[in-house]
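Need tokens for this chain, all 133 residues.
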Amino acid sequence: MKHIILYRCQQCGGRRKLFSENWVREFVLTCSGQLEPIHILRAFEDGEFGVCVVHCAPGECRTLAGARAAVRHTEYARQLLEEVKIHPARVKTISFRPDCDLHAELNSFAEQLKHLEGQAAGAIPAAPERKKA
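Here are the structure tokens for all 133 residues:
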């Protein structure tokens, strides 16, 4: 079964997992800035449906640069996905605010992904074998 992978800063909703839906795999991070582009790419390599990264709102990050790093790393991962013909809209970032409804945001993202299905939606292709010299 394909999932939406949710990476979330613990400052955005607490340390406990918020989602019990079977189509969401949630990972709570100490800071969303810890998330590297490779984590996002691996999700698609494993055949997952999409990735959502929830980070602190601008000016609210306790580590000061974590939210900026999360956005920067996510944008870089989108560029890499586009190069391998995976639609970059399969990665979403959410800037968390106290009035943010994460369930509604994630449901909206799932609907968006359903419309993208079939449009460059394959897993990351295997690297070509190198010829021995």
